[in-house]
Amino acid sequence: MLDFFTIFSKGGIVLWCFQGTGVTESFTGPVNALIRSVILQERSGNNSYSHDALSLKYKLDNEFELVFVVGFQKILTLTYVDKFIDDVQLHFRDRYKNELEQKGALALLNSHFAFEDDFKMLLREAEESSKARGPTSMRSFNASLKSQKTVKSMIETKGGDKGKEQGGKKNKNAKKEGKVLFKMFLSPKKGAFGGMFGMLKGLVGSKSLSQEDMEPVLDKMRDHLIAKNVAAEIASQLCDSVAKKLEGKVMGTFTTVASTVKGALQDSLVQILQPKRRVDILRDVLEARSQRRPFVITFCGVNGVGKSTNLAKISFWLIENGFTVLIAACDTFRAGAVEQLRTHQRRLNSLHPPQDHGGRPIVQLYEKGYGKDAAGIAMEAIAYARNQAFDVVLVDTAGRMQDNTPLMTALAKLIAVNMPDLVLFVGEALVGNEAVDQLVKFNQALADHSMSDKPRLIDGIVLTKFDTIDDKVGAAISMTYITGQPIVFVGTGQTYNDLRSLNARAVVGALMKA
């Protein structure tokens, strides 16, 4: 009932693979999707991943730097898979220990791993064991542990034990046998680790890291991230991901658990803030210009986060780079919204007078007043920009709470009808858990209210009020982690110049500072 099982090295060399009877499709696509979406993006909070009609389970052996991946149809409930993948890992490494201890890709390529008979034996035992257990009947409420809970039992006392979830280890990348499709580098930084981790500098020379070794460090790390404004759920997922990456890894002499874990977390955080999709607005505007059409950016977000102000900052940045801008006033609800944009238009044109640009204002405002259909105004503005040869259209929308269904429907309609090139979510750097809720619900609402099978979701983030948070920069991690989309700009003040690109390493440095 398994579609495939593959074992490969961190370097991407497939050591052995199995494909189920009647399965003709290659497993390379699903495994590479797992690598791109979960492993390279440091999102391995658990050991499961879905790809089209397949469910994938994966496990990482850090001692021998191996990856084990099993795939089966989603509609199947295979209760034995978690134990089965553990059994295969132990059996494979025990049988081929001598070969695996030889370092280097060439040694692996020259080794022969005849694992077919062992695999079929383990699979047969797992399936028979599963059948022998049979289906379990559902317990009544009175028989369950939940019926024993009281309010007092759910209050965590100081110094009380915290339950820890022991997950499977993390997986890496896959390919066709003998060919390297990717390369992973795991090199935890070494050295002393001060501040909050100062008390955890016990030396653990030349030993394999276990969950118990890392647990005290991860507890303090989780609390530290939450104190720096990372959403609590995401802080836990990050620490779980680091634990799975390091479990079983052999440490060098005079290397501390704390420094190893800190190095792995720093690498993970930098990777999260540098997601796979990079937004290059200037390049994209030039490409749209070559096609004789305007580049359209839509701004959305909750009330009071600074959408109009940061729209004006981005207008100034575009003007400084030689582009003409049309601002579409599609906030037809908030009193004063149109007047605010008109004020920005006048100020921007005073900085770049029309006489310096052939008598034509370099920034114009397209508005139809209040109470009108925002999607219709945006459509008219885009058509006007095309006729008048504007380079960029910036669409300002009304602020709305993520739970306001009518306004979220209107936003989804505006995006679906006008198909902007870029949808930017504007959020505050001051929020933590709330940022996650806003982004998840905005994306969900755009998907639910879209008229397309492939709805447009948020493409990037503008983080405002970044100058007010000192080193509590956790919202940047929360927002990027939850969407997988980049932070395009951060607002750092009240003037038009106060707009910056995000420096991932500087943010991580501030986040990890004790």
TrEMBL record:
It is found in: Endoplasmic reticulum membrane. SMART domains: AAA, SRP54, SRP54_N. It comes from the Eukaryota. GO terms for cellular component: signal recognition particle receptor complex. Keywords: Endoplasmic reticulum, GTP-binding, Membrane, Nucleotide-binding, Receptor. Its main location: endoplasmic reticulum. Residues 486-499 form the SRP54-type proteins GTP-binding domain. GO terms for molecular function: GTP binding; GTPase activity; signal recognition particle binding. CDD domains: SR_alpha_SRX, SRalpha_C. Pfam families: SRP-alpha_N (PF04086), SRP54 (PF00448), SRP54_N (PF02881). GO terms for biological process: intracellular protein transport; SRP-dependent cotranslational protein targeting to membrane. The keyword Protease does not apply. It is a peripheral membrane protein. Belongs to the GTP-binding SRP family. This is SRP54-type proteins GTP-binding domain-containing protein.
